[in-house]
Amino acid sequence: MNTPDIRLDNLTVSYDRHPAVHHLSGTFQSGSLTAIAGPNGAGKSTLLKAIMGELRPAEGRVEHRLQRTDFGYLPQAAEINRRFPISVLDIVLLGSWRSAGAFGRIAKQDTASARAALSTVGLEGFEKRHIGSLSAGQFQRVLFARLLLQDARIILLDEPFTAIDARTTRDLLDIVTHWHGDGRTVIAVLHDFEQVRAHFPETLLLARRLIGWGATQDVMSSANLLQARAMAERWDENAEACEPAA
Questions:
Q1: Is the pTM of this model over 0.85?
Q2: What 3-state DSSP class applies to 151?
Q3: Residue 24's closest CA among 2, 5, 6?
Q4: Closest Cα to residue 47, out of 68, 24, 70, 77?
Q5: What is the DSSP letter of 26?
């Protein structure tokens, strides 16, 4: 049996002291491919940020023995400023900081690897293009190329297939499948339940509280989805605030 890469112990994460993820416990096994699914506002993106260490738990903890460089993180597209004057090749090369260091020189091998990553995602010849000139699907391919160059052990994806074309989605899902085949741990926030069922063997169904976590065919049952929807409809935005952990 695989050992857990990441363990959540009674994890509560809050915004303005109101819980977005509430008393969540469970494990992501090493080499697992897991979808985080649930209604809008269910705490899915919040959970990824807590795993990354970007948000401090109000209660409980995230346990692992990993370094920051072990994580590759793809945020939602809306969080990325595409007006910044940077080329496609340069943004992919940002994935080489693991080997080059924050202020290290980019080696010829890094540049060659970045070009190879762009070829893998179908963007050979786009190296000099400005990122602002790309379509949504092309830009998402660039970000996947950067993750390929980063070569991380744990890959966290926040809604990676939202608002992109079907062909790009298929190509990027192939890369996710390849990562899983390489034994990497991949965790993806998804809103398309058919994608979850078709491509992700494990699912964490979240509605601020845990609804189910395990084999997708069991977790994504009609009863669980109805429960998640019902919990979402009962959310009280004025509920008692959680005090931060000492």
A1: yes
A2: coil
A3: 6
A4: 24
A5: E
Is 190 in contact with 35 (CB distance < 8 Å)? yes
**C-alpha distances in Å from residue 48, one per residue of 36, 62, 159:** 9, 11, 11
Q: Does domain 1-66+153-169+180-246 have CATH number 3.40.50.790?
A: no
Residue ranges per domain, the chain? Answer: 1-66+153-169+180-246, 82-151
What three-state secondary structure class fits 245?
coil
Token code pair at residue 111 = 């540049």
Q: What's the pLDDT tens digit per position in 190-206?
A: 999 999 999 999 999 99
In the chain, at which residue ranges do the beta strands (DSSP E only) sit? 4-15, 18-29, 33-37, 59-63, 71-74, 154-158, 185-189, 202-207, 209-215
User: For residue 9, how far is the Cα from the chain centroid?
Assistant: 20
**pLDDT tens digit string along 137-162?**
999 999 999 999 999 999 999 999 99
Q: Is the pLDDT assigned to residue 25 strictly greater than 90? A: yes
Instruction: Please state, in angstroms and rounded to a whole number, the distance separating the CA atoms of residues 173 and 195.
Output: 9
Residue for token pair 């209604």: 39
